[in-house]
Each structure stands twice: as structure tokens, then as C-alpha cells.
Write a structure and sequence with these properties.
This protein is an alpha/beta fold. It is 25% helix and 17% strand. The strands form three sheets. Strands 5-6-7-8-9-10-11 form a seven-stranded mixed beta sheet. Strands 12-15-16-17-18-13-14 form a seven-stranded mixed beta sheet.
């Protein structure tokens, strides 16, 4: 029976080598390899290598080796083997009696790169079948398995990649120790290295097919363990630690399995995830994430997955696990990122301390424009603020003397919004900056005391000097936090425009005022105030001073809202200051602008509500919704 021809061109000789033709009949047996295995450490030592010039160390080769270790490019790390140079002194013959061939050197060290991948080169390996070479190598290092990745040819040299250090060391030790059928020794070069990834449309389609094979629809899980070793991808270098491959996998998941709940990424030599963006939006339903036996060194790398509803996380086998001496600290760091995690590295965790309420009960309350700790204070606060800001926006603020207590205290501060500082296109706050009493910046005690306004005259004098303003009452947010017969505490914030400034367009500012109000005679006055001003943000400025749209007035002949019955009149609260003609005229203009009524009917509306602006607006809205406002009220 003729012997099977395993080799290509078996009679060819290696250049520069002798020897005759020989026949080889290998014994074929079944081959299996495990997808997972663990390597061990190898004890090595450094030994000087002489050269034909008699130097003790080959500095040039050592420099090249170090450069390859740092950059992890495809540079030959076999300093002595397979380089085509004679490192023996005097050019003596080697064991085969031939000059010019490299001599085997035992005890060579295999340097380790950052990714843990190794490039295996076999010169003249293209002369042999792939199955023949693989069987030769598998038999030589058995029982250690290895998976050849991205098998390719460069001239007559065969190149492939492996990801196991112990297997790489064993392959390196085979250099010139394995007999080939033609009598020559097999040359094996091993050094750290990974090829560039060319993610073509064909490769992406193959990845999609492999992912479909590894997806389990029953539990909505995807197992990508050691993806590069999948038999359908071994001809490519499809390693998940390459950002281009990982991003492609995420895109496939997002497009084809958006309801994925479990993702296994074990044994992929993953290191960093800083290149990932919006993972929580791409994988919104992933509850189980396994990242075991990778090369993640820092817990901060997991920040890329923040936002995922993780309940089961596996990190065992990563260097970051060795950084935590205390188990509680480890769990705490994980739950900072994944507060719902209940299983870590296969161990059930105790439930986190939280409020004993259901999800429905934990919903955030609806946003409220105004908060009132006591509904009885609504009319008082409304009446007080309405009259205060009516006077404040007038040209004469002296009537505010009656709105402040004789011993009132007033403090003012300013700041720029975060991220919107003193830029060219921002309205500066220079006038306010000189009077700002920010205790974090004003360290001098005398200066702090001087900036604190004390007494009604000092307070109103300061307010009179401030720039003229026009407030947007529809932007106000009022919170009544304390209401007792002895004291009222409230905060009010909103927008105003600064008038008569050097700016072409009046700047829009935001204010926040905290008021402590106490009874005074038949009314109320301010005993303490903190006033803060800043620039409005672009969004706030766009929404400010937008007059609410009013519906088209319906026809009708009902009586105008000039009677007390239109809205309840406050009899129990006296105004802190009487309204002068200027303040009343300003109020008339505002109600006319808001309602669309003419001046005559605007005056009737205010008189019917005792010049209470807020109540007048409420009365108009109520009557207008009923069609009770006559058409002549809108004739101008």
C-alpha cells in the first residue's frame, strides 16, 4: 500500500542545509483539546551569550528584545534561534557538522507582553500541510493543548497566535529538537505579539453567525467565553480585548437581541473599557454580567457599565480582586456601581440596607411650583410678595422702608452658574461682585461685618442703589417652610431683567431670596433676608418672560369682575405699605398684558379684588373659562 503523502515538496531542502531524502509515515490519531486550561510559572535564569567578536553580551539584540517587550510588535524575540547568524565562537561546526547554522540554546526566557498573546513563527513551514504541522506540535507538547489563531503564511514562513504562556514556553523549547521527515530540525520562534484587526464586512457577518450560535433564547443569555477560540473564527484574529471587535459585538447585540438579559465575557483577556460609550442604553436589560478570568486591574474600569441593572456579577480571576484585602470593601465598591447586585463571584450577598417600601411607593412626587407647609399662609404670602415686587420694580424703592423691620439684617451674595463663567458672551456681574458677602471668599472679619446691612434704612438704601429690574412673576417658585403666628419663613426664586445697563440686550438674571417675616402692627415686615443673584442659564433665559397664551374671549353679557363676589377679599391681613398711584398703574399694565383686557376693565378687575394681583388673575381665569367676561372688555 502506498504511504500517504503528507508533505508538500518533501524532497526540497532548506537553503544552506544538507541531508538526503527520507520518507515519513505518521500515525494518525484523534485529537482533542480543551477550551480552558491554566498555565504555570517557569523557572528561568539569565545567561550571557557570546558572539563571534567575543563580546560578553549582545547589547544590540537585548535592546531589540526590550523594545519588542514594550511595544509588543511582531519582532523576533528568539535572540539566538532561527536568526540566520552563527553565535558560536570561531565558527565551529554544530552537531550536524554544518557551518552557518544556529546552535540550540537551552534555558531561553520567553518575555511576556501586556496582552498575554504570543506569535509563533515556523520558517519553511509553508512546505508542509497545516494538519501535519499541528499534529507534530500537539504531540510534542502533550498533554498541554493550544488553539492556533489566525493561521497565515508570509513567504515560506507559517505564522499563528496563541494566548497561553505555558504552551508558548513549550513551543519555544521545541526549537531544533523535533525531527522533520526530511532529516532537518523544526525551527520554532515564539515572542509576544498581536496582529492588527481588519474588521471587514465578511468578518462581522461571521461574528454575527457565531453569536447566534451562542445565544440561548430561553433565558435570553449570550455566552461569548473565549470568543477568539471559536472554531468558526480561528482563521481570524477576533479578540474581544480589541476595541474595534468589542464595539462591533455591542452593535450586533443592539441590532439583533436588544432584550438580552445575561452576558458572559469570561476568558477574553479584557483589560480596559474606557472606549465604551452609553453601554446602559445599548444593553438596558442586562442583569447578569460575567467577566471572570480577564485582565481587569482596576475597579474603575467597570464604570463603563454603570446604569445596567446588574444583580449577578462575576469578577473572579481578575487582578483587581487581589487588591481588596477586606471582603466588605470589595462588596461596597461593587455596589457603588451596581446597587442592585445580589450575587458576586457566585456568592449570595445580604440585602443592602434600604427603606422598606415597594417600587410603587418609592416613586418621586410630582414637581410642585409652590410648597406650602400650611395652606392658611397662602393668601398672606401671596399678598405680601405681590406688593413687595410691585414696589421693587418701580423707579422709587423708598416705600420698601415699611416692608423691613427697624432692626432688619440683610446679606447679599452672587456667583456665576457652574460652567458659565466670565466669558465674552456672558453678561458679567461686576456691580454685584463688589457687594457680595460670600464668607468662603471674604476672609476679613471687618469686611464681612461691613457687607452685612443692618437696619431698615441701610437695607433699603442698598436696594435703591441696585440696578433697575423687571421681574417675571410667572417664573416665581415660592416655598413656605414655616408658618406660625410669631414667624413666617419662605423662599422665593425666579427671573428678572436688568434694565438700563450698558448691554445691548437687557441681561436675564436669576434670583433666590430667603425671607424671615414677623408680625408688625396690623401687617408684616421682613426681619432677616438673604439675597442671591446669578446669571440665568441659556435654558432659563429662553423660557423667561413668555406671557401665557389666553383663549379667545367668548361672547356674553355677564357682569364684569368688579364685585367682591368674584374672588374672596382678604380682610384679616393689612398691607405692609399702602399702594401709591405709580404701583397701581404698574399693576393695571400687568393685568392688561396678561388678560388681554383693556385698561378700563383691567382697573375694574383689580378694584373688585381689592388690588390683589394674584386674586385678580384667578378671578379672570375663572370667569373667562365660564364665558362670563363680556366682549367689550377686550375692545381697545
Amino acid at each position: 500500500m502506498p504511504k500517504p503523502n503528507i508533505t508538500k515538496g518533501m524532497n526540497h531542502r532548506h537553503p544552506g542545509q544538507g541531508g538526503g531524502d527520507r520518507e515519513f509515515s505518521p500515525t494518525i490519531r484523534s485529537m482533542e483539546y480543551r477550551a480552558e486550561f491554566r498555565g504555570g510559572d517557569r523557572r528561568v535564569s539569565f545567561k550571557p551569550v557570546g558572539n563571534r567578536n567575543g563580546n560578553k553580551y549582545r547589547n544590540k539584540d537585548w535592546t531589540n528584545a526590550l523594545k519588542s517587550h514594550l511595544e509588543e510588535e511582531d519582532i523576533d524575540m528568539n535572540l539566538a534561534g532561527g536568526s540566520g547568524k552563527n553565535f558560536r565562537k570561531g565558527g565551529k561546526k554544530n552537531r550536524g557538522g554544518r557551518r552557518g547554522s544556529p546552535a540550540p540554546i537551552d534555558g531561553r526566557q520567553l518575555m511576556q507582553g501586556p496582552t498575554g498573546w504570543y506569535r509563533v513563527s515556523i520558517p519553511y513551514g509553508e512546505k508542509y500541510d497545516k494538519s501535519f504541522l499541528l499534529k507534530l506540535l500537539w504531540d510534542a507538547i502533550a498533554p498541554l493543548p493550544f488553539v492556533p489563531i489566525a493561521w497565515q503564511s508570509a513567504g515560506t514562513t507559517v505564522i499563528f497566535y496563541i494566548d497561553e504562556r505555558k504552551a508558548a514556553e513549550k513551543l519555544l523549547s521545541l526549537d531544533r529538537k523535533v525531527q522533520l521527515p526530511n532529516g532537518f530540525k523544526l525551527i520554532v520562534k515564539v515572542h509576544p505579539g498581536t496582529p492588527n484587526v481588519d474588521l471587514s464586512a465578511d468578518l462581522k457577518e461571521k461574528i454575527k453567525v457565531v453569536m447566534a450560535k451562542r445565544y440561548f433564547a430561553a433565558n435570553k443569555s449570550l455566552d461569548l467565553t473565549k470568543l477568539h477560540a471559536d472554531p468558526d473564527l480561528q482563521d481570524y484574529f477576533c479578540a474581544l480585548f480589541k476595541p474595534i471587535v468589542f464595539i462591533a459585538v455591542l452593535e450586533i447585540i443592539e441590532e439583533n437581541i436588544p432584550d438580552l438579559e445575561a452576558l458572559c465575557l469570561n476568558d477574553n483577556r479584557l483589560t480596559v473599557f474606557g472606549f465604551l460609550k452609553k453601554v446602559s442604553k445599548r444593553l438596558p436589560h442586562v442583569k447578569i454580567l460575567h467577566l471572570a478570568n480577564n485582565k481587569i486591574k482596576d475597579m474603575m474600569q467597570l464604570d463603563a457599565f454603570i446604569g445596567l441593572p446588574i444583580v449577578d456579577l462575576l469578577l473572579d480571576g481578575n487582578p483587581l480582586c487581589d487588591r481588596f484585602k477586606n471582603q466588605n470593601t470589595y462588596i461596597s465598591e461593587v455596589r457603588k456601581r451596581f446597587p442592585k447586585c445580589m450575587k458576586l463571584d457566585g456568592i449570595e450577598l445580604s440585602r443592602p440596607i434600604s427603606f422598606d417600601i415597594t417600587t410603587e411607593e418609592a416613586s418621586i412626587p410630582e414637581l410642585q411650583k409652590t410648597y406650602l407647609c400650611d395652606s392658611n399662609g397662602e393668601s398672606i404670602v401671596r399678598h405680601f410678595l405681590e406688593q413687595y415686587f410691585m414696589i421693587y420694580d418701580s423707579k422709587n424703592r423708598q416705600p420698601l422702608l415699611e416692608a423691613y423691620h427697624a432692626q432688619a439684617m440683610f446679606s447679599f451674595t452672587m456667583s456665576y452658574p457652574y460652567g458659565l463663567g466670565k466669558e465674552k458672551n456672558v453678561a458679567w456681574l461686576n456691580w454685584y461682585q463688589t457687594e457680595s458677602r460670600n464668607v468662603l471668599k471674604v476672609q476679613d472679619a471687618d469686611r464681612r461685618c461691613k457687607l452685612l446691612k443692618q437696619g431698615q434704612l441701610s437695607v433699603v438704601s442698598f436696594l435703591q442703589d441696585m440696578p433697575e429690574t423687571k421681574h417675571d412673576i410667572y417664573s416665581f417658585t415660592v416655598d413656605l417652610t414655616l408658618f406660625t403666628p410669631q414667624m413666617i419663613c419662605l423662599t422665593v426664586s425666579g427671573m428678572f431683567k436688568e434694565l438700563k445697563t450698558s448691554h445691548k440686550v437687557p441681561p436675564t438674571r436669576h434670583f433666590f431670596r430667603t425671607l424671615v417675616i414677623v408680625p408688625a402692627g396690623s401687617g408684616f415686615c421682613i426681619a432677616n433676608e438673604q439675597y442671591h443673584i446669578t446669571n440665568a442659564t441659556p435654558d432659563q433665559a429662553r423660557e423667561a418672560f413668555k406671557t401665557p397664551s389666553l383663549p379667545t374671549p367668548a361672547s356674553g353679557t355677564a357682569a364684569p369682575p368688579s364685585t367682591p363676589e368674584a374672588s374672596p377679599v382678604i380682610h384679616s391681613v393689612a398691607s405692609p405699605v399702602p399702594l401709591d398711584n405709580v404701583a397701581k398703574q404698574e399693576m393695571v399694565n400687568q393685568i392688561a398684558l396678561k388678560t388681554g383686557m383693556n385698561i378700563e376693565w383691567s382697573i375694574k378687575c383689580l378694584e373688585g379684588t381689592d388690588w390683589d394681583f394674584m386674586r385678580a388673575c384667578a378671578a379672570f381665569d375663572s370667569l373667562h373659562s365660564q364665558g362670563a367676561v363680556p366682549p367689550e372688555a377686550f375692545v381697545k
